[in-house]
Write a structure and sequence with these properties.
The structure holds 2 protein chains of 2 kinds. By secondary structure, chain A is mainly β. Helix content of chain A is 5%, strand content 38%. The longest helix of chain B is centred in the middle third of the chain and has 15 residues. The radius of gyration of chain B is 24 Å and the shape is globular. Classes of the chains: A mainly beta, B mainly alpha.
């Protein structure tokens, strides 16, 4: 695989890395997804594991890596425990989205549940959804995203479809079925909605991205199986910025890719991580590790993305890449040329 | 389908894999025994596991999972693989080429080793040993990274000979001397691993083997009577052509796949239980150029193997994985995997964390009062859960025999469904008596389902069911 040398109107500039591996306090445990809140808050969804379920939680921090708090932690003791299935707990959380009131919605693909918290982490309630394939029923929900009217679009992964709900959980619409044709889906995962209300889906097992109108009419697809430029290997998530530029978490290719508004390939990144603030704190507390790093072979591997699962973009052109296996988020900034007159 | 063909197929699948449902046994028996052996010996002819699904639902298996997470992943693989011998041979080599999780800095280092076992474990033995000698998990586990040209560490050199290839001796004779151990260790000086990246802040990274020529002892060495400026590769080539190696590997294959033998330390002075079978394997070892697949083809097609039904105590791994494959649980990742996989540990086999470099003692040593209770409770709970798809399939299968079935049909039918199990007359009569008390049973009723579940539970609690 080669990196494109084509001149592009879009460039990604690495900014910084946030995170370190922790079950408690500043840090993440397999951050699978995140959502940007108001001001510079980030809500980071930590999936963790069954043998360390205390790490399953939502960690709140700032873009500048200031720790704020955690919530939705169902198991408080360390070590292997049975999951807590009670309201307000998470088992297999998949995605997080924030409505216009700054309430936090979380999908859980084991519980088939949407849990709702306020911006401070107080549990507000859940949607009582039946497992099934009827209207409004779900089977392993993954990506969720709000439109400008606070309707929630939900990726109903094992039903291979998208469903649209009011923010109170009332079923509105659905589209999609299993397949590989236009508008068909195969175990879709991530979702995002652009300024015009169009819906983008990471069509996971079809190795492509599909774009639909808000009503589910097929508009466009791009990507195919492979590891070349523009090719995808199980894309997990998609994000669209205010200008319509599309960012894809190319999961099993261990990279992110950027596509233009028409789906044409722009650029890709395989990772640029540096030591985060929290990481530096940890190393300062274990100073012998600074020496170990100096002696280590292949420290450049630390930069590389590994199975990026979530990608998000904010209105300040920050692109956040959630990298579960490394317990961190790599942050990039989109750079566009500056001309006289309105910018892109 | 003749009962004996099913019974033989059940035997093959328990040994070359982790057992099979009755439907799979029928399908395989229809293909034929030798065709099934060929298929098992060609794992790559079968589909791979859906790794993307595993990673999607259990993302911690991707990377930094600790011992329990690694055990979960391997257990899931064994339950769901379409290539049973690929996982079985990995288990075989793991029980011989022992490494321990606690001595791996990178949590997946052993999984990388197991990938080598999957890839090369049915191939040439000398090639496998070459890979093992450069495997970072092994280099670190047996301290070869601490063996220097001016200060050797004999750990790897000793175990290579004693536990991984030749064994201390055979037919009452020793296979090598203390001097050979030292010369072997000298030849492997400079075989080490690179400095690792510390675990903070982002976790560990895969270790890399490196040959440090500056730390290699370049002087002449005499090993097993051969003199030269030997390096590690030369030592493995010499080891591979020793009669002791052919005997040692043949006995291991026999002990794992055919019938329980005495524990390894006794092999120097205790002859094989079936010398003819071992001789046939030794001959094939040399004839094929040390090819494990060829040896296994001879083994599985031999009368010694076919006549060895129930001559082995199932290992904890075989017990748990075989039970899950039978009942059809965990065919897709779900919560509870950790608790389920831990049963293997509770039964006495903490995968990836063996008690010593000698690995686990096998056969009847798997069983003590504690592990027996764990084994029976786990198995009985699983087969007694009539909601499991595999148990439902058994119920439907037995119900299809007519509107009612007799107590005798219930006992024998359940034995068939569990893989053509055979009980002693005494045990069978006890189960029959228990069943006869309640008379004929109408199939298609809730009571029938319960009676099937109870009978399956009774069978898996017998002494006979401890064996494979």
């Amino acid at each position: 695989m080669t990196t494109s040398t084509q001149i592009s109107h879009i460039q990604l500039q690495y900014s910084h890395t946030i995170g370190r591996g922790e079950q408690f306090g500043p840090g993440f445990t397999y951050p699978i997804q995140m959502a940007r809140g108001e001001s510079d808050l980030m809500y980071v969804l930590c999936r963790s594991s069954e043998y360390r379920p205390e790490g399953t939680r939502i960690a709140v921090c700032t873009v500048n890596e200031e720790y704020v708090n955690v919530f939705a932690r169902g198991v408080s003791q360390q070590g292997p425990h049975e999951y807590n299935f009670e309201d307000g707990s998470l088992v297999w959380p998949t995605c997080i989205a924030i409505d216009s009131q700054q309430n936090v919605y979380v999908s859980d693909e084991w519980l088939n549940r949407i849990s709702i918290f306020n911006k401070d982490g107080e549990f507000l309630g859940k949607w009582d959804i039946s497992e099934g394939d009827g209207d409004g029923e779900i089977n392993r929900p993954s990506g969720i995203a709000f439109d400008k009217d606070d309707n929630l679009y939900l990726v109903d992964s094992l039903n291979h479809r998208i469903q649209k709900f009011t923010k109170d959980g009332r079923f509105l619409a659905k589209w999609g079925s299993q397949g590989s044709g236009d508008g068909e889906l195969n175990m879709p995962w991530g979702i995002d909605i652009d300024r015009q209300g169009n819906v983008y889906i990471a069509d996971w097992r079809n190795d492509r991205i599909q774009k639909f109108t808000a009503d589910g009419e097929f508009l466009m697809k791009f990507g195919s199986s492979g590891s070349g430029e523009g090719e995808l290997n199980r894309p997990t998530d998609v994000a669209v910025d205010k200008d319509g530029i599309i960012y894809v978490a190319d999961w099993l290719n261990d990279r992110i890719q950027v596509f233009d508004t028409d789906g044409s390939f722009v650029t890709l990144r395989t990772g640029d991580a540096t030591v985060s603030k929290w990481g530096k704190d940890k190393l300062d507390a274990n100073p012998e590790m600074w020496g170990e790093r100096d002696r280590a072979e292949g420290l450049e591997r630390e930069k590389l993305l590994w199975a990026p699962s979530g990608i998000a973009v904010d209105d300040e052109n920050n692109i956040f890449v959630c990298e579960g296996p490394r317990n961190r988020i790599q942050v990039y900034r989109k750079q566009s040329p500056t001309f006289a007159g309105p910018r892109l | 389908m003749a009962d004996k063909e099913i019974a033989l197929m059940a035997h093959l699948m328990r040994r070359a894999g982790f057992g099979a449902t009755f439907e799979e046994l029928e399908a395989r028996a229809a293909k034929g025994y030798e065709a099934t052996v060929d298929e098992l010996l060609d794992p790559e002819g079968q589909p791979e596991l859906e790794r993307d699904l595993m990673m999607r639902y259990q993302p911690q298996w991707v990377s930094q999972a600790g011992l329990e997470g690694q055990q979960e992943e391997w257990t899931y693989r064994m339950i769901n693989t379409k290539r049973p011998l690929e996982e079985k041979i990995a288990l075989f080599w793991h029980q011989i080429f022992v490494t321990g999780h606690a001595k791996c800095e990178y949590p997946k280092q052993q999984q990388i080793e197991f990938d080598m076992f999957r890839r090369d474990g049915l191939g040439k033995f000398d090639n496998l040993l070459q890979g093992l000698a450069k495997d970072p998990a092994m280099v670190f586990y047996l301290d070869n990274c601490m063996s220097h040209k001016d200060a050797i560490n004999e750990n790897w050199g000793r175990e290579l000979l004693e536990l991984f290839s030749m064994g201390v001796g055979m037919d009452g004779q020793v296979n090598y001397t203390e001097e050979d151990v030292k010369e072997c260790a000298r030849a492997f000086t400079g075989w080490t691993v690179t400095n690792s990246i510390p675990r903070y802040p982002y976790g560990k990274y895969e270790a890399k083997f490196i040959y440090d020529s500056g730390d290699h002892d370049n002087e002449e060495k005499t090993f097993l009577g051969e003199t030269g400026n030997w390096n590690g590769e030369d030592i493995i080539n010499i080891v591979a052509r020793q009669p002791g190696t052919a005997r040692f590997i043949s006995r291991h294959l026999y002990n794992f796949f055919v019938a329980d033998e005495p524990q390894v330390p006794a092999w120097q002075n205790t002859p094989p239980g079936d010398p003819e079978a071992i001789k046939a394997l030794e001959d094939e070892y040399f004839r094929s150029g040390y090819d494990i697949r060829s040896m296994l083809r001879v083994l599985f097609n031999s009368d010694a193997f076919k006549n060895a039904r129930f001559a082995k105590v199932k290992s904890p791994t075989e017990t748990v994985v075989g039970t899950m494959r039978l009942v059809g649980d965990f065919d897709l990742p779900k919560p509870g995997m950790n608790a389920m996989a831990l049963n293997i540990r509770y039964m006495g086999q903490d995968l990836m964390n063996p008690p010593t470099v000698e690995g686990w003692h096998t056969g009847r040593e798997w069983i003590d009062s504690g592990t027996l209770v764990e084994r029976i409770n786990f198995t009985a709970d699983a087969v007694g859960n009539t909601s499991h798809p595999g148990i439902q399939s058994i119920i439907q299968r037995l119900a299809s025999r007519g509107p009612t079935i007799s107590p005798e049909q219930l006992v024998d039918g359940c034995l068939d469904m569990l893989g053509a199990y055979e009980l002693t007359e005494v045990t069978r009569n006890e189960l029959l008596a228990m069943s006869q008390g309640e008379g004929d049973i109408r199939t298609g009723t809730q009571e029938f389902e319960s009676r099937v579940g109870q009978m399956l539970q009774s069978i898996v609690a017998t002494t006979e069911y401890l064996f494979a």
